[in-house]
Each structure stands twice: as C-alpha cells, then as structure tokens.
Amino acid sequence: MTSLLVKIFIKNSDKINDPKVRQQYGMLGGLVGIFLNVLLFCGKLVASLLSGSVSILADAFNNLSDAGSSVVTLIGFKLAGRPADLSHPFGHGRIEYVSGLIVSFLIILMGFELGKSSLQRVISPQATDFSLIIIIILIASILVKLWIGFFNKNLGKRISSPVMTAVASDSITDCISTFVTLVGALLSRYANLHIDGYIGIIVALFILYTGFSSVKESLSPLLGQRPDTELVEEIKKCVLGHSEVVGIHDLIVHNYGPGRSLISLHAEVDSSHNILDIHDTIDLIEMELQKKFDCIATIHMDPIDTDNPLTLELREKVTDIVKNIDPQLSIHDFRVVFGPTHTNLIFDISVPHKFRLTTKEITEEVYCKVRELDGNYFAVAHAEHTFV
What we know:
By secondary structure, the chain is an alpha/beta fold. It has helices at about 1-10, 20-50, 55-80, 95-125, 130-160, 160-190, 195-225, 230-240, 275-295, 310-325, 360-370; strands spanning about 245-255, 260-270, 295-305, 330-340, 345-350, 375-385.
C-alpha cells in the first residue's frame, strides 16, 4: 500500500535528497495522518460518550493530538523545502527537525493532561458502560493505527526523516495504549472490574514515554550529532580512492538538514608533486563528493614528504611511540625540521573523545619518548580530539 501511494502521489520518488521530493513525502505522510486520526478521534469520541469512559476519551484526544502533529509535520516539510536565501545560505532543512521537536512537545503536553484527568477518575471513580460496538471501534482503531505506524516508518526510512520516525513511534505506542484501553473495557464488561482511571494513567504514561523519546531523537541533529560511521567510511573510501592522496584527517560533516550537508577534510599529498596537478585532483575529488553525497565539499591540502628515507623512518618510529601508548591514537601532518643543534619532529595526534589520558598527558609522554630516540630530536606535538 505504501509503495502504491508513493508511486501515485510522489513524482521522482527515488530522488530522496531533493528538497522538493522530501517535501512531497512529508506532505503525503501529513495528509494521510490528518485524515485517519480525525476519523479515529470521531469514532472514539462517540465510544467515550456512549460508555462514559475516561480512558477512551483520553485515547480519543490522543488521536486528535496526533492529527495536530500531522499538521505540524506537513507545515514543517513545507517550510524545510524552501530554497536557500541571503539569511540562510544553507537552506531551511533544519526546520524539519524543529517540527519534530514541536510534535514531541505536543505529545508530552497531551500525556500530562490525560494523566491528570485519569488521576481524577481514580480518586472519584464512575461507572462505565461498554458495549460490543465500542469494543469493535477500539479493535478497528488498533488496526488503523498499526497501519499508520508502519506507513510512516516506511516513509521515514526511505528519506531518513526523524520527524516521520517520531510519528511512526507515536502510532505504535498508540496501538499499545488502545490495546490496554480495550483490555480495560473487556474487564469492565465481563469481570465487573472498574479500572478505567488506572487504564487512563497507563495510556498517559505510554504517551509521555513516546514524547520524551521523540524529543531526544529530534534534538540530537539540532545540537550537532556525530555522522554515521557508514557515511564516514564511504567518504574516506572516495577520497583515498585517488592515488595522489596518501591520508586524510580532520574530517567534519556539518548537517544543515536532510540532504543539506557540508563536508570538510584535510588531504595529505606528496609534496614533491606539481602543485597545479595536485590542486586539479583535489578539485575533482570535491566535485565527486558533491555529486555522490549531495553536499558542499571543501578539502585542504597538507603536503608531506614521502621521498626522504629519514623522514619516513622517523614517522614510523613516532607512530610506534604513539601506538604503544594506546592503539586508538594516530598521528598526521608529520614534518621534520632539521637544525644545527637539534631536529624538531612536528605532528598532530588524533585522540578519541573520553580518552583515559588528557591531551596534556599524551603530549608530555610522547615528548619524553621522542627524547629517548637516537639523535637530538624534540617533539612539537599537538593533541586534538577527533571529530568522527
């Protein structure tokens, strides 16, 4: 069903990095969500009025909030699809994350309100009247919500959208909460157990859990999260696929919204090569990255000496020193400056985050180990945390 709807309503659906195509995906998910959630709200509202159940009423207004969330999703994708302008040179893609955050807060607000009304029903219980038609409405609601959940999950997976993933998670949680409400209705009808208020509280807790989980998922890309390991490896493979590049470091991926990324890195190249030829190669790599990852790519060249046997030998010795401290450490930008009284070994050390030693402790230990080498060598080392 999802593939059929995508085929009918979304033109060029395979071009998921195109802002206009992403906008169509978001609008499709939003419109379907609004229509079905309004239907569910109406059905459960009727069921609640007939039975006098606060848990069904809570579930009904939860569906109404889901319809509101779909409206926010629809507007968010519409705004996120706006092109770049003078004030926002990288576009408006992050609005998609903001809309996901708004959806999450709406879910949390509804959870608190429903929890409060359910607690009042626990304190002041009232008789409820469940009929077969009400139970049928609840079962139908579970099936519809289950389909909405898988529908949004499928769309979200296709375009890697945290907003649609949040909506999908909310729908699956709604299925669980409606199932709990159904169990309460059956127990009330056939076991004469009046637990409507308690069921309402359980539903509210499900809603709150979904809301806080969605906040975490939507907030992470806004704060600036670590790029996917798979993406990092693909970038490295692409750059190192050119024989002129002997190493890369300081890779940074800035995310300005889905399909809007800026990639920057340092590429180590042989200093003996013609600078114009190397510059041409770097330009080609930048264009290759832009085409493959739909991004803006900037590469800084770091010339290194790959022909001097002594330089290569010293680099290998320093690499061993650093690796003996910890295999997770690595060096780059290695240079040798010879002088009449001593020789400086200049290099940077890449340090993982949350490493057991501070950068100062690492540089001091490396300095001492370099002084122990045969020859009057001094380490001019700068330790820095890696970006990826």
